[in-house]
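User: My instructor asked us to take a sequence, write out its structure as tokens, and then describe one feature of it. I'm not sure where to start. Here is the sequence I was given:
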Amino acid sequence: MMTENVVLPERQKKPNWLRVKLPVGKKYTELRGLVDKYKLNTICTSGSCPNMGECWGEGTATFMILGNICTRSCGFCGVKTGRPETVEWDEPEKVARSIKIMGIKHAVITSVDRDDLKDGGSIIWAETVEAIRRANPNTTLETLIPDFQGNTSQIDRIIKVHPEVVSHNMETVRRLTREVRIQAKYDRSLGVLKYLKENGMRTKTGLMLGLGETEEEVIETMRDLQGVGLDVLTIGQYLQPTKNHLPVKEFITPEQFKKYEIIGLEMGFMYVESGALVRSSYKAHKHAK
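Assistant: Let's start with the prediction itself. The structure tokens for your sequence are:
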């Protein structure tokens, strides 16, 4: 059975439920001013996140480390692919300073994949968490990590600094993984989440819908995630970054997103955020509690 979705003809306008409200509010205005004044780098602004106003209003922001060039070439992602720049070893202190200036209560840290580095970037990851802890002892943290090619010694560096939440995105169902996440593996990502959970972490992952998956495949993926003890699941609509990326096959209806939320909660996930505009860091502050 296919999902109750709207098939997307070529160049069809986005449905009404995908309209994004302009960010507003006193807190957003204040933070936007600080970001511009101090030239702070948040993925919220560089990625034009549709939830930026809401998240900033709740004191949450997302920061990307280890540069903006990825060693992988996923079919869905707008981040540049190529040879990354040299690691900036003072980056952890810069991120910690940005969080302090902005007065962030909950910070989400993410990164590009750095398969070019022997440590996969895990040393900078750990040092960033430690720097944030020193400068912002009351700030809670979520680390949205790459798979580190399944290298547990690299993942151990994340576990050792113990952020409140550790997230690693599955992105899509098993059948579509090779096309959507070209250098990634479905079972390897599941294994990363399982290893994190077995070592005491609160775990989280995100799925994008609208790439041609069926309802059965989404539910199968949810069962796989439940099987490795996942705590938090986010489900959102895939939107094509450029014409060179994978096309949107379907726009998922709000009713279908709600259905997945109900199914997920019934399965026993601690939190399920499911909606067209939901992104990995949506309502992230509450997932740390």
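For the description part of your assignment, you could build on this observation: The first strand starts at residue 5 and ends at 7. Try explaining in your own words what that tells you about the chain.
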